[in-house]
């Protein structure tokens, strides 16, 4: 639910595939916006509880790596998200779609995504209906937040949940700007307006670089550090995470810390 007195007070809404993606990708701009007095909400799509059925060995291995028992994993990650949003000054909405590692085939009861390799590439054939359901959920959020600027993921890296979020956003939302999915964007050294980023779609958008102050970068790093269970997915330490965010920000900003967004026009993101 919205943690605010009225949905009408919001200026910007960010769609996050998972609990951490928006902080990783555009936490600096969010901090900049909230420090300027704007109200911001981050809506996480895949924040639902796992099924009661036995999880795949792959999902269990991830829980072990995160250091969180399966029964507590989602609750722990939701708590991390609230801590991260407090660092950025944003509010949070958690939708009830399970992470891909928890989604099961209704026909077989087997996990649809039961290996590291299965997380990248094409959405499972059974999930076309899920994309429509996600779009319906976003339309409901749009009705509650009719005046906000919507930010959605590009879908860089082709993680299935990032593709799901991008597809649902394109079906349901008047997207103001797409953000680069970090750290997957770090692998796209030559990203250009014609880069293919989501399935067979061509980006065809204009890049806009948003400079960040040191305080924005520091707040972003604190927010990402709040997702303690997830740090080991990409980095060996919090210091390595901070160095990675700073290096990518400098590269995007050509020597000044920045984040990059992709727009159908050149109007300002902020």
Explain this structure.
- The protein has 270 residues and is of the alpha/beta class.
- It has a single domain (7-263), classed as Rossmann fold (3-Layer(aba) Sandwich).
- It has helices spanning 21-35, 57-66, 70-88, 128-144, 160-172, 214-225, 231-234, 238-252; strands at residues 12-16, 40-44, 91-94, 149-153, 175-179, 196-198, 201-202, 206-211, 258-263.
- A 7-stranded mixed beta sheet has the order 3-2-1-4-5-9-8, sandwiched between helices. It has a two-stranded antiparallel ribbon with strand order 6-7.
- Helix 1 (21-35) runs parallel beside helix 3, helix 3 (70-88) runs antiparallel to helix 6 and helix 6 packs across helix 8 (238-252).
- It is globular and about 50 Å long.
- It starts with 11 loop residues before the first strand and ends in a 7-residue tail after the last strand.
Offer a few descriptive terms.
270 residues; alpha/beta; Rossmann fold; 7-stranded mixed beta sheet; 39% helix; 15% strand
Instruction: Spell out the helices and strands N to C.
Output: EHEHHEHEHEEEEHHHE
Distance between the termini: 25 Å
Strand order of the largest sheet: 3-2-1-4-5-9-8
Taking pLDDT < 50 over at least 5 consecutive residues as the criterion, the unreliable ranges are 196-202
Residues in helices, as a percent range: 25-40%
CATH class: Alpha Beta
Number of strands: 9
Task: Evaluate the radius of gyration.
Answer: 17 Å
> What kind of sheet is the major sheet?
7 strands, mixed
Task: Return the CATH architecture.
Answer: 3-Layer(aba) Sandwich
Q: How many separate domains?
A: 1
CATH topology: Rossmann fold
Task: Work out the helix count.
Answer: 8
* Corresponding CATH superfamily: LmbE-like
Shape: globular
Mean pLDDT: 90
């Amino acid at each position: 639910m919205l943690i605010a007195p009225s949905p009408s007070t919001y200026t910007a809404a960010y769609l996050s595939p998972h609990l951490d993606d928006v902080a990783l990708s555009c936490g600096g701009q969010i901090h900049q916006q909230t420090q300027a007095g704007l109200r911001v909400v981050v809506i996480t799509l895949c924040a639902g509880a796992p099924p009661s059925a036995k999880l795949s060995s792959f999902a269990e291995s991830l829980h072990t790596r995160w250091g969180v028992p399966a029964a507590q994993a989602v609750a722990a990650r939701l708590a991390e998200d609230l801590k991260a949003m407090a660092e950025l000054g944003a509010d949070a909405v958690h939708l009830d779609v399970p992470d891909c590692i928890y989604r099961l085939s209704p026909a077989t009861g087997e996990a649809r995504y039961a290996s590291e390799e299965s997380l990248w590439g094409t959405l499972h054939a059974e999930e076309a209906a899920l994309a429509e359901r996600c779009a319906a959920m976003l339309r409901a959020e749009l009705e509650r937040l009719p005046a906000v600027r919507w930010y959605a993921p590009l879908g860089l890296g082709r993680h299935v949940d990032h593709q799901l979020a991008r597809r649902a956003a394109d079906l349901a939302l008047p997207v103001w700007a797409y953000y680069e999915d970090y750290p997957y964007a770090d692998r796209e050294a030559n990203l250009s307006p014609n880069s293919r980023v989501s399935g067979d779609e061509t980006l065809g958008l204009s890049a806009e670089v948003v400079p960040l102050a040191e305080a924005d970068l520091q707040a972003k790093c604190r927010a990402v550090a709040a997702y303690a269970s997830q740090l080991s997915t990409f980095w060996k330490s919090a210091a390595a995470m901070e160095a990675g965010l700073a290096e990518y920000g400098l590269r995007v900003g050509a020597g000044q810390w920045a984040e990059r967004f992709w727009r159908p026009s050149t109007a300002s993101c902020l």
